[in-house]
């Protein structure tokens, strides 16, 4: 089968990507207008528009309201699942490990900590009865002041109600898992279900995405030594920004929970 | 902050999705034309077009050339990373485990098996010198005759050159890992790097996707007992079709390889 020649807009996208990579267009700078690019490159404005659309999907550029189309500033962030949770005793919250490794400035904004009715699917995993509340710890993480993920962590209220620390942004040494361990329900095993989807309107605003930019959704479940699901954390992350790393040794399949 | 009301096209997308879920529009059927939907729902054709665009991104419908916009036929497929490789001794190839579990008909088409120059990044992981070839086993997997993934597996030619079985579609008991074990380089540890991106033109054709539908790319690396990377397999999978499941026990971070 003969390969189709690459369509013109894809060729233009490649050319613009090369200019981003070689620094002709600097990180954070505003891309020349589509009219100017069309004139310079001798193609139609429609072709340039489709090319820029590809660059938006791939995260190479984004549209900043009131500014224009700007060049990507953050590098690809590697999230090593087991390493990030193993690092939780070392000062940084698990969520900040990857970002600091890249010498980026990390920040976590807690937007809500308190009692909340969990989504039905979360209640089911946590084994909560009808109307039984959870403690929600909802946060947005940043690298160099750009949003990198939303993380909503749900814990059974019946377990957390006596822990003052768990209602604070800084839950103390070892983070919230440290407090759960003190309560006798420390997590020792984890599963993550990874899906990809388009972002909701609210997520688009929070993460600075447009509707065409897919997000990873990670459904992280932590289990105690007696295999009780003790936390569900839902991570929503711009797809173009992250590489998710998992590793395992061969052997019998672990119980899928 | 007050939430924006949901835009009209998003409301229309929700309505159409509800009709798919309740069976008003059956799996595999052709969606009514955008003109007819616009008339029935009392909105503009542009609004219907944007709504259908959302359904395409989410995989609820797809455009079949010469047929029209058709309703999704395959359910979400769960891929449990450690379970799928643990199951490789049980007759089915690792790649077919998830699909059979859903009582779907699985099929693997080998489109190429033979000596090939690996991509530079693959050669680097496998420790191949300049110009050193690999054995490529390239296949497309199907469920009920719909393509579900492309899997390109690269092995060092120097290791595989004496194995007749590895050049066959059916590599024998335990698949290609069984043969590697007989050669003294059986995989015992794995890492996977998961990214999401838009599909290339060739991938769009092979997987029946359009440019706006993101794909998972899984970069699967298998290591021997002496920690030699012995295989790189690159999986490209329609994002809307898959949930990726990983699990691990707490402990020190494994060496990231």
TrEMBL record, chains A, B:
SMART domains reported in the protein's UniProt record: HTH_GNTR, UTRA
Protein name, as recorded: GntR family transcriptional regulator
Keywords: DNA-binding, Transcription, Transcription regulation
GO biological process: negative regulation of DNA-templated transcription
PROSITE patterns registered for this protein in UniProt: HTH_GNTR
Gene3D superfamilies assigned: Chorismate lyase-like, Winged helix-like DNA-binding domain superfamily/Winged helix DNA-binding domain
SUPFAM superfamilies referenced in this protein's UniProt entry, alphabetically: Chorismate lyase-like (SSF64288), Winged helix' DNA-binding domain (SSF46785)
Top-level taxonomy: Bacteria, Bacillati, Actinomycetota, Actinomycetes, Micromonosporales
Molecular function in Gene Ontology: DNA binding; DNA-binding transcription factor activity
Entry-linked CDD domains: WHTH_GntR
HTH gntR-type domain ranges (all copies): 6-74
Source species: Winogradskya consettensis
UniProt feature coiled coil, ranges: none
């Amino acid at each position: 089968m003969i390969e189709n020649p690459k369509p013109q807009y894809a060729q233009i996208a490649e050319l613009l990507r090369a200019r981003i990579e070689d620094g002709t267009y600097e990180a954070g700078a505003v891309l020349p207008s589509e009219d100017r690019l069309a004139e310079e490159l001798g193609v139609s404005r429609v072709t340039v528009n489709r090319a820029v659309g590809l660059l938006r999907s791939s995260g190479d550029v984004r549209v900043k309201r009131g500014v224009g189309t700007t060049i990507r500033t953050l590098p690809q962030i590697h999230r090593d699942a087991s390493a990030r949770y193993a690092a939780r005793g070392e000062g940084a919250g698990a969520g900040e490990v990857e970002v600091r490794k890249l010498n980026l400035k990390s920040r976590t904004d807690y937007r809500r900590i308190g009692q909340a009715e969990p989504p039905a699917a979360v209640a089911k995993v946590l084994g909560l009865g009808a109307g039984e509340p959870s403690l929600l710890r909802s946060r947005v993480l940043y690298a160099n002041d750009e949003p990198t993920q939303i993380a909503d962590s749900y814990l059974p209220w019946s377990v957390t109600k006596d822990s003052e620390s768990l209602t604070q942004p800084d839950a103390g040494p070892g983070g919230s898992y440290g407090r759960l361990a003190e309560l006798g329900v420390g997590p020792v095993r984890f599963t993550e279900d990874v899906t990809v989807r388009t972002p909701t309107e609210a997520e688009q605003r929070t993460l600075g995405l447009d509707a065409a930019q897919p997000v990873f959704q990670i459904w992280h479940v932590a289990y105690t030594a007696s295999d009780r699901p003790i936390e569900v954390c839902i991570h929503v992350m711009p797809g173009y920004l992250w590489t998710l790393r998992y590793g395992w040794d061969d052997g019998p399949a672990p119980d899928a929970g």
